[in-house]
Amino acid sequence: MSEAALRRFEMTVLRRLDGLLHGDYHTLFRGVGLDLADLREYQYQDDVRHIDWNVTARLQTPYVKEFFEERELTAWFLLDLSPSEDFGSQEVSKRSQALELTAILASALNRRGNRFGAIFYGTGVDTVIPAAAGRRQILQILHRMRQRRPSPPTNIGTRLQDLLDTAARVMRRRSLVFVVSDFVTQPGWEKPLAALTHRHDVVAVRLFDPLEMELPDLGLLTVQDAETSEQLLVDTHDRTFRSRFVAAVEARENALHEGLAEAGADVLELSTEDDIVDALFRFSELRRNVGRLAAGGVARQGSLS
């Protein structure tokens, strides 16, 4: 993406994002200072993650930690660009959605003077762009995403845990982390993701295409595994086969969402058919509402004591 193209993009997409969020990026880009400043009694709408449970137990009243605010937020994009990301049943692929999402978030972060970096995964972790601020940083990340050739299929498939483990070693300070992936991966990513969420504010951006969720009745089709290139002839006219496909999808979805929930990451589901700005707005509203519900629950608990 050129400087002129980025400027046009910012004038259209970011202005729309500003309008939807009324200029408030808190729910999208919430960061936490590192240094403890003080303790005070819990107030409605405080972040429940800041509750000091030891003090709360002793005093029988909820208390929260106050931190010195950091002057800037550091964000990281963990970008899964493995072979399955190139799939798209219509005009838009999962990879192109990842690129546009990164452009939007990086531009929004840059407008607030924040630093951001990126780690790329193809058939393995192959690129680390250190965190920095500025338009040249945005252009560098987007250029490298655009110029990458599709990753060749492998026999072992994607190992998302390798990307997460690398990120844990690279990110030395508390950061906002966007894990952008379709989570079509070998098992074993759950514990590394949980380790990241223990130290960082993690948003798992799960990319998917509607055709991955439900097969239409199109007769005989040759389907290919994007990760391994294995091909299979299937009869989509067969109701029994389509039922088995739906059952397999449900099992996969349940396992995926269980793993994400146990890891404690916030989740943004992004389809290849979604308008990204609308999806970000829904995600921001969800974060805000979850915070309000949690705050209400703690307030009621405190009043009972």
Report on this model:
The protein has a 6-stranded mixed β-sheet with strand order 5-4-3-6-7-10, sandwiched between helices. Strands 1-2 form a two-stranded antiparallel ribbon. α3 runs antiparallel to α4 and α6 packs parallel to α7. The radius of gyration is 21 Å and the shape is globular. Helices cover 43% and strands 21% of the residues. The chain starts with a helix and ends with a helix. The C terminus is likely disordered. It contains 8 helices and 10 strands. The protein folds into 2 domains: 56 residues, no CATH class; 201 residues, von Willebrand factor, type A domain (Rossmann fold, 3-Layer(aba) Sandwich), CATH 3.40.50. With 305 residues, it is an alpha/beta fold.
What labels describe this entry?
single chain, 305 residues, alpha/beta, Rossmann fold, 2 domains, 6-stranded mixed beta sheet, two-stranded antiparallel sheet, 8 helices, 43% helix, disordered C terminus
